[in-house]
Amino acid sequence: MEKEETLRIDNYCFVCGKENPKGLKAKFISSNGKAKAEMILYKEYQGYSGIIHGGIIAALLDEACAYAGISLGYYTVTAEIKIRYRKTLKVGEKIIIEAFAEQIKSKLIQAKAQIKDSKDTIIAEAEGKLIIKEKIEKS
Ligand SMILES: CCCCCCCCCCCCCC(=O)SCCNC(=O)CCNC(=O)[C@H](O)C(C)(C)COP(=O)(O)OP(=O)(O)OC[C@H]1O[C@@H](n2cnc3c(N)ncnc32)[C@H](O)[C@@H]1OP(=O)(O)O
């Protein structure tokens, strides 16, 4: 039988990797099933002029869900994610990304995430299903 691939962390994650020169370098803090980051996205990440690309927003929401799952002690992969884009996100606006995750089956974590602007307006929301691949060993 084929051995299952393990997930490796090498700081090159497109969203959070400190070593990735082309990444977003988002800094998440997470604990007890919750994750949070604050950041500003610049013109490099736009689609239409002045508006941040929806794929970038989706990547941030996905990452927030993953970090919320990590804080429960598991590395996961995303099986499904549903995004609702409520408002356009303008280039240069400060955003707050938050997620909440709970384990609902032995291998399944359900997560919700949202991005708000500095006026507390919801820009986008997500619901994700994350499949547990491995337990994080405490070092
Ligand atoms: C501090 C630490 C720093 C860390 C920094 C780095 C962070 C980096 C973070 C990066 C984050 C980036 C995030 C990313 O980008 S992750 C990368 C993007 N995602 C993927 O590549 C996933 C690709 N897909 C797969 O690998 C498989 O299809 C998966 C694993 C998803 C399912 O595989 P498979 O189809 O073979 O399933 P199974 O037979 O093994 O079943 C396993 C269990 O799962 C249940 N199931 C399956 N699908 C669903 C579903 N849709 N809804 C509900 N449940 C579902 C299933 O019922 C079963 O449960 P049970 O019957 O056992 O109860």
Automatic annotation (TrEMBL):
Keywords: Apoptosis, Cell membrane, Cell projection, Cytoplasm, Fatty acid metabolism, Hydrolase, Lipid metabolism, Membrane, Transit peptide. It comes from Thermodesulfobacterium geofontis (strain OPF15). One of its GO terms (cellular component) is membrane. It comes from the Bacteria. This is Acyl-coenzyme A thioesterase THEM4. It catalyses: dodecanoyl-CoA + H2O = dodecanoate + CoA + H(+); (5Z,8Z,11Z,14Z)-eicosatetraenoyl-CoA + H2O = (5Z,8Z,11Z,14Z)-eicosatetraenoate + CoA + H(+); hexadecanoyl-CoA + H2O = hexadecanoate + CoA + H(+); tetradecanoyl-CoA + H2O = tetradecanoate + CoA + H(+). Its main location: membrane. Pfam families: 4HBT. It is a peripheral membrane protein. Signal peptide: none annotated. It is found in: Cell projection, Ruffle membrane; Cytoplasm; Membrane. NCBIfam families: unchar_dom_1. GO terms for molecular function: acyl-CoA hydrolase activity. The keyword Hydrolase applies. Residues 50-122 form the Thioesterase domain.
